[in-house]
Amino acid sequence: MTDSTTQAALGRQLMARLDEAALHSLPGPGVTRLFCSDEHREVLELIADWMRQAGLTPELDASGNLVGRNARALAGENTLILGSHQDTVAEGGKYDGMLGVALPLQALQALKEDGVELPYGVEVVAFGDEEGTRFQSTLIGSRALAGTFDPASLEARDADGVSLGDALEAFGGKPRDIPQLARKPESVIGFVEVHIEQGPVLEQRDQAVGVVTSLTGIERHRVTVTGKAGHAGTTPMAGRRDALVGAAEMVVEADRLLNATPDFVGVVGKLEVRPNAVNVIPAEVTFTLELRSPDADVRETGSREVLDACRRLAQARGLELEIESTYQADAVACAEWLIEALEGACQACHEPAERLFSGAGHDGLAMHAMTDIGMLFVRCKDGLSHHPDEAITAEDAERATRVLMRFLSDLEAA
């Protein structure tokens, strides 16, 4: 294993790689890199180079994932899958997703340079679309690998009217071949993802890493409120069918219910007003509603209460309401044997690593349908994520890389 000087260098090199990846972004604050965009294409060239340095052979698959395989994986031996997503939210940070691509490649390269040959196949996947920022349809790549890809998602369209299928075809993917990407469960050892915590727990504990026990359940809805446009100066206030006022009441009521329910969180993250004119009563408002809970019963009950409240408020104001469910993923548990293996690697590296729950969704939500999943969290400053100020330290990057190296070295072929 590498000495402490080399390990510190690994952290610095990892941070430099993450800085370089962040350059592939749309202009503006933070990092904005969307699925099947020019920035996506550019960053894959960089990641492919990292894969080759780690001894992996890179390949763009039919769903837009970049997959790097070692010789044993290429030969069809049982394989451990590692990875995370390359895409970001609008004006996001450098580390959400990309850390889980760069760090395992850094760890594999260090093991290779140390002369360590792993006795099993390894794949590192840079998933194309986890955030759903462009097409509002998440986990495309991980669902493809898990064998749960829904071809109907190819019809989703971005703000410019481009379909996901057409964008993927232009990117070099092969939408028709996506079903063939499904892995055989018996040939997969498991799936492990490294990710920033996106929360404050590790910082509060003063710990660099943590071992995840489970991933939250998530559902998303697109809510359209329809009223009637009119002249803002000549239409009496009484009797107006103002879609924005109705939508505002719904947002406030959703917030009240979320605050009143333990282990239930959510957000109205996107809102569109039509005709969006300064002197016209809004005729239509569309907003997104995302709801999360680690407890399926809490999420289902809370969702029903929120959506029923929207219906009551719409009826009270004479507004029409359409609710479209756009995404759902149930909470999933990490495999106990992977939790224990990651804990063992932490202990061997003298890293305290208590267990914690993930309040965010990850590619593991999809991969769980096909194989056991495990997850290692890395401390992030102020628990901040989905923001340009998202930050980790070089020291924590090094410590997490060292833990993953130990995990990979200790893992036996299944």
UniProtKB/TrEMBL annotation:
<feature type="binding site">
    <location>
        <position position="195"/>
    </location>
    <ligand>
        <name>Zn(2+) 1</name>
    </ligand>
</feature>
<dbReference type="GO" id="GO:0046872">
    <property type="term" value="F:metal ion binding"/>
</dbReference>
<keyword id="KW-0378">Hydrolase</keyword>
<feature type="domain" description="Peptidase M20 dimerisation">
    <location>
        <begin position="217"/>
        <end position="312"/>
    </location>
</feature>
<dbReference type="InterPro" id="IPR036264">
    <property type="entry name" value="Bact_exopeptidase_dim_dom"/>
</dbReference>
<comment type="similarity">
    <text>Belongs to the peptidase M20 family.</text>
</comment>
<dbReference type="GO" id="GO:0016813">
    <property type="term" value="F:hydrolase activity, acting on carbon-nitrogen (but not peptide) bonds, in linear amidines"/>
</dbReference>
<dbReference type="InterPro" id="IPR011650">
    <property type="entry name" value="Peptidase_M20_dimer"/>
</dbReference>
<keyword id="KW-0479">Metal-binding</keyword>
<feature type="binding site">
    <location>
        <position position="220"/>
    </location>
    <ligand>
        <name>allantoate</name>
    </ligand>
</feature>
<feature type="binding site">
    <location>
        <position position="279"/>
    </location>
    <ligand>
        <name>allantoate</name>
    </ligand>
</feature>
<dbReference type="Pfam" id="PF07687">
    <property type="entry name" value="M20_dimer"/>
</dbReference>
<feature type="binding site">
    <location>
        <position position="292"/>
    </location>
    <ligand>
        <name>allantoate</name>
    </ligand>
</feature>
<feature type="binding site">
    <location>
        <position position="85"/>
    </location>
    <ligand>
        <name>Zn(2+) 1</name>
    </ligand>
</feature>
<feature type="binding site">
    <location>
        <position position="96"/>
    </location>
    <ligand>
        <name>Zn(2+) 2</name>
    </ligand>
</feature>
<feature type="binding site">
    <location>
        <position position="386"/>
    </location>
    <ligand>
        <name>Zn(2+) 2</name>
    </ligand>
</feature>
<feature type="binding site">
    <location>
        <position position="131"/>
    </location>
    <ligand>
        <name>Zn(2+) 2</name>
    </ligand>
</feature>
<keyword id="KW-0862">Zinc</keyword>
<comment type="subunit">
    <text>Homodimer.</text>
</comment>
<feature type="binding site">
    <location>
        <position position="96"/>
    </location>
    <ligand>
        <name>Zn(2+) 1</name>
    </ligand>
</feature>
<dbReference type="InterPro" id="IPR002933">
    <property type="entry name" value="Peptidase_M20"/>
</dbReference>
<dbReference type="InterPro" id="IPR010158">
    <property type="entry name" value="Amidase_Cbmase"/>
</dbReference>
<protein>
    <submittedName>
        <fullName>Allantoate deiminase</fullName>
    </submittedName>
</protein>
<keyword id="KW-0464">Manganese</keyword>
<dbReference type="Pfam" id="PF01546">
    <property type="entry name" value="Peptidase_M20"/>
</dbReference>
